[in-house]
Design a protein that fits this description.
single chain
């Protein structure tokens, strides 16, 4: 596929562009490849001007791991081609080194398979700076469904009526 910051047109229902990387927003500076349902690869440039570097940490700024993880999840959702997928769990999550301003992170996600639940899809994700792996998720489980499970107990039903 071609390198582009636009999401391929075959992803009906997805926004025309991925958001730029920024505080609290998973995003990418460039999408290198999307093989729908198989794998995807994107670049994230970490600039020193991002506002969270003022507090995380001022003397040695590092990219918060949760933002890197969110970008890995967002890329897996994009590769799956289903904007309704959400995170069920991330197993085998490892951070191997800090990501600092000036780094260019190459995020890759690959489809592993469907689990026992036919609505759950398993992915593997890695983030590299140069040839060094900075983070990896061995088993990223994405599932279709509501963000909040409906309450099933009677007390909750009474409180809402």
């Amino acid at each position: 596929m071609t390198a582009s910051s636009l999401v391929p047109a075959e992803f009906a229902g997805l926004p025309a562009e991925m958001p730029p990387a920024g505080i609290g927003t998973p995003g990418f500076d460039r999408i290198l490849e999307v093989s729908p349902g198989v794998r995807a690869e994107a670049l994230l440039n970490v600039t020193g001007t991002l506002p969270f570097f003022d507090s995380h940490f001022p003397r040695r700024p590092i990219l918060p791991g949760v933002l890197l993880t969110e970008s890995m999840i967002a890329l897996a959702v994009l590769a799956a081609g289903d904007p309704l997928l959400r995170l069920r769990s991330a197993e085998g999550l490892r951070f191997r080194r800090f990501v600092t301003p000036g780094d260019q992170v190459r995020i890759t996600v690959e489809f592993v398979g469907v689990s026992e639940d036919p609505e759950e899809f398993r992915w593997r994700a890695t983030a590299k700076v140069g040839h060094a792996t900075v983070a990896a998720i061995r088993n990223l489980r994405l599932v279709r469904g509501p963000l909040i499970a409906p309450e099933t107990n009677d007390a909750a039903a009474e409180a809402n009526s």
